[in-house]
Specification:
45% of the residues lie in helices and 24% in strands. It is an alpha+beta fold and 150 residues long. The chain has one domain: Sufe protein. Chain: A (Alpha-Beta Complex), CATH 3.90.1010. A hairpin with a 2-residue loop joins β2 and β3. Strands 3-2-1-4 form a 4-stranded antiparallel sheet, with helices on one face. The structure holds zinc ion. The site of zinc ion (ZN) has 8 residues, from α2. The site of zinc ion has 8 residues, from α2.
Length: 150
């Protein structure tokens, strides 16, 4: 295993062990539930969107290390981003994890998401890595009345 791969592995294990933005949002107007039956991963994504900007985002759920780390890293990237940027990131991420394992990865463009490129070699894991992203895209479409939890 080369040094870069090892670093990627460590990043995934760290986010799985200490997921960022884990829990429910007190103020939430977009949410969705995602399920990956192939692996048993289950993730809820909560977002508070104001003027097309993702002001806050959190997730909860249970699943394998890849699904949890992917959700955790996604939330750290999306906070403060515009909706169209979030959609563009989803496209880049999706293209990268479903690309030919022998093709070159645009690490500059992917940034932190490059850690998941290893799943290209394991088609069964692609759904684990992309579950949070698909759920986030569904949440963008699910606008709900602003819920404020006491
Ligand atoms: Zn999984």
């Amino acid at each position: 295993m080369n040094a870069l791969k090892e670093l990627y592995q460590q990043t995934i294990l760290d986010h799985n062990k200490n997921p960022r933005n884990f829990g429910e949002l007190e103020v939430c107007n977009h949410c969705a539930e995602g399920h990956n039956p192939l692996c048993g991963d289950h993730i809820d994504v909560f977002m508070n969107i104001e003027n097309d900007i993702i002001v806050d985002v959190k997730f909860k759920g249970a699943g394998c290390a890849i699904s949890k780390a992917s959700a955790s890293i996604m939330t750290t990237i999306l906070k403060g981003k515009r909706i169209e940027e979030a959609r563009r990131l989803f496209e880049s991420f999706h293209d990268a994890v479903t690309s030919d394992p022998n093709s070159t990865i645009d690490e500059m463009n992917l940034g932190k998401l490059a850690v998941f490129c290893g799943v290209r070699e394991f088609p069964a894991r692609v759904k684990c890595a992309s579950l949070a992203w698909h759920t986030m895209i569904n949440a963008l479409a699910n606008e709900e009345l602003l819920m404020v939890k006491a």
